[in-house]
Amino acid sequence: MKHIVAIFLGIGLLALCGCTSENAPQPPQKLPAVSLSAADKEKLAAFQKDLLSVGNLTDRAVKLATDEVKNVLKGGKVSLDLPSILDKAQAECLRSGATLAKKAVPAALPPEMKSLLNEGTAGLIAANKAYAESFDAIKSFAADKNPMVLLEYRKKSSQAEGLYRAAAAKFKVIMTAAGVAQ
Questions:
Q1: How far apart are CA 47 and CA 166, in angstroms?
Q2: Number of domains the chain contains
Q3: pLDDT tens digits, residue range 12-36?
Q4: Within 13 Å, how many C-alpha atoms sit on residue 178's CB side?
Q5: What number of CA atoms fall less than 13 Å from residue 115's CA on the CB side?
Q6: Residue 16 falls inside a structural domain
Q7: Alpha-carbon gap, residue 86 to 90, rounded angstroms
Q8: How does pLDDT run across 32-86, given as a tens digit for each residue?
Q9: Which residues does 11 contact at the CB level (< 8 Å), separation at least 6?
Q10: Is residue 8 one of the residues assigned to a domain?
Q11: Is residue 105 part of a domain?
């Protein structure tokens, strides 16, 4: 019986580490250079800073949880703090998503920029939600030791990473077009 569990765990680890379902990166969208007033550039920079400050808190929580998960997957002992760490990371992801949903895009921007900012913000919110869902899968794995649950973790984690990269690309396009330092 132990051999069967070891085989399934090995298959789960291979699936988790070796296989990805990531799509080929899409070329970033181009926006023509936009002339904004100094006040509008400052509002855009402040918006960017707000998004980054919310994202930094989430990044720390996700990194801590991911490090603990990797330790468990490598055969390390399941930490007694793992459920607590996962709960905190999940709560932080959901809180960040709610905070991002309340952020208002600067009104003085051209419609194309507003649209991309809204899409990017929605992508960040969706990425936070996917990270939170991936932690549910890890909690289930820690409780049941079912290696098949790791596939759900990998799927949600990859989805979150893809959404985050797509949102970051949109923000970069906007900031470049507006001439705002990144």
A1: 18
A2: 1
A3: 434 444 444 444 445 456 777 778 8
A4: 29
A5: 5
A6: no
A7: 6
A8: 777 888 888 898 888 989 888 888 888 888 888 888 877 777 776 766 677 888 8
A9: 147
A10: no
A11: yes
The two tokens of residue 52 are 């980054």
Q: Are 99 and 125 in contact (CB under 8 A)?
A: no
Is 22 domain-assigned?
A: no
Tokens 């569990």, residue? 5
Report the pLDDT value the prediction gives residue 29, as an integer from 0 to 100. 64
The model's pTM is: 0.77
Residue from 100, 160, 84 nearest 128 by CA:
160
Which DSSP symbol is given to 104?
P
CATH number for 153: 1.20.1420
Q: Distance (Å, rounded) from C-alpha 126 to C-alpha 118?
A: 12
Query: Rounded CA gap, 118 and 125, in Å?
Result: 11
The set of residues, in sequence order, having a beta carbon less than 8 Å from that of 23 and lying 6+ positions away, is 162
Give the range of the structural domain holding residue 95, as residue numbers without chain letter.
Answer: 38-178
Q: How confident is residue 182, by pLDDT bands cut at 50, 70 and 90?
A: confident
